[in-house]
Amino acid sequence: TQLLEQSPQFLSIQEGENLTVYCNSSSVFSSLQWYRQEPGEGPVLLVTVVTGGEVKKLKRLTFQFGDARKDSSLHITAAQTGDTGLYLCAGVWSNYQLIWGAGTKLIIKP
Amino acid sequence: DSGVTQTPKHLITATGQRVTLRCSPRSGDLSVYWYQQSLDQGLQFLIQYYNGEERAKGNILERFSAQQFPDLHSELNLSSLELGDSALYFCASSPHATVGEQYFGPGTRLTVT
Predict the structure, then answer these.
(1) A-chain residue closest to B105, CA distance
(2) Predicted confidence (pLDDT) at residue A36 exceeds the cutoff of 80
(3) DSSP string for residues in B33-46
(4) What distance lies between CA B7 and its chain's CA centroid?
(5) C-alpha to C-alpha distances, A26 to A72, A92, B99, nearest whole angstrom
(6) pLDDT digits (tens, 9 = 90+) for B41-86
(7) Cα–Cα distance between B12 and A48 in angstroms, integer?
(8) Could you give the CA distance from residue A21 to residue A23 in angstroms, rounded to a whole number?
(9) Cβ-defined contact of A95 to B98 (cutoff 8 Å)
(10) Which chain B residue's Cα is nearest to A105?
(11) Residues 6+ apart with CB under 8 A from A46
């Protein structure tokens, strides 16, 4: 069974702080996607990382794919209340299916 | 707005009943994926269709079925509903036959009483 573990499951911090969330697996993925989901809405794709060691930046969000393509991290600098949401990672394991993590629920307090 | 539409937005029904959820993909997308998300849990992949053909199956119960029509819209049929089927059901579309980025609809919240 291919598993993607996300940690922490829940994180509540003050606005302006930095944070990192993780997505780990024992399996190698050809690529990995990060999504953000707000309450009552569908997930929205943030980024796809493909190459081992790849780093992508999206404003204050920095995504990294591990060298061995088994893990990934999302770092948020100076968090804002608008960053609140459920962050999901999904690994491409086969051509037909994404393997989804259970998500990190992030709350940014004003 | 992802361009994916789902109807209805909310559905309340009784145990034992049957319901149909509808999804229209983004213009030009040939793949449709269906997911189930229970409270505070991640996404469970149910099934994928590509250009009218079933492409992949995930953890879909035998009581559930889906199809994709020639105009590319898709329907997910849930029958003999149980309390545990209460969840958010999402449809996602993609231009790819194989896995790539997916664009999610707003979901249908199903409540089985």
Answers:
(1) A42
(2) yes
(3) EEEEE-TT--EEEE
(4) 10
(5) 12, 13, 20
(6) 778 989 999 999 999 898 899 999 999 999 999 999 999 999 999 9
(7) 36
(8) 7
(9) yes
(10) B40
(11) A33, A34, A35, A36, A58, A61, A63
* Distance in angstroms (rounded) separating the CA atoms of residues A109 and A104: 16
Asked if B56 and A96 come within 8 Å (Cβ–Cβ), the reply is yes
Query: What residues in A contact B40, CB-CB < 8 Å?
Result: 105
Considering only CA atoms, which of B93, B31, B78 is closest in space to residue B56?
B31
Q: What would the mean pLDDT of B27-35 be, rounded to a whole number?
A: 95
Structure tokens at B37: 């998300």
Backbone Cα Rg of chain B:
13
Radius of gyration of chain A (CA): 13
User: How many angstroms separate the CA of residue A71 from the nearest CA in chain B?
Assistant: 18
Contacts of A97 in chain B (CB under 8 A): 45, 48, 56, 58, 99
CB A96 within 8 A of CB B55: yes
Q: A74 - beta bridge partners? A: A21, A63
